[in-house]
Write a structure and sequence with these properties.
The chain is an alpha+beta fold and about 130 residues long. Helix content is about 40%, strand content about 10%. It is built from four helices and two strands.
Length: about 130
């Protein structure tokens, strides 16, 4: 067998991981640290700036597949955690004399009429001020 490619593991920023854990704890959500072998974009972002991820449980543990299924409540919980983390970074940024909001809510409707909410988080801009 010939190895085609190999990528070293990428540790995420402990401060980001702690912020995610605090958000989940504050909101009363179960949480645990996870090691993922997937090549998420965050792996590459972590080389540039403090980075963290929030995973949502998938039905039968199947992810990265066209039959992936998640519960709307789990998506809502993850969005609430992201919002909480963004608020923490906003506060840290303001404590360092910076003025600015690091999140923006975007509401929309899918083709089937389902509403969604995206929370765009600009952690890159705030992470260096949060330390």
């Amino acid at each position: 067998m010939e190895m085609v490619s190999s990528y070293p593991a990428q540790a995420f920023d402990a401060g980001c991981a702690d912020a995610v854990r605090r958000a989940a704890d504050t909101l009363g959500y179960s949480n645990m640290p996870v090691v993922s072998g997937a090549g998420h974009d965050a792996v590459y972002m972590a080389r540039l700036a403090p980075t963290g991820m929030i995973f949502i449980p998938c039905k039968d543990g199947i992810s990265h597949n066209e039959i992936v299924a998640v519960e709307v409540d789990d998506i809502a919980a993850a969005l609430a955690a992201v919002d909480n983390v963004a608020a923490e970074y906003d506060s840290a940024w303001e404590a360092h004399g910076q003025n600015g909001e690091c999140r923006e809510d975007v509401w929309g409707t899918t083709e089937d009429g389902s509403e969604f909410r995206l929370i765009l988080v600009q952690i890159l801009a705030t992470a260096s001020h949060a330390a």
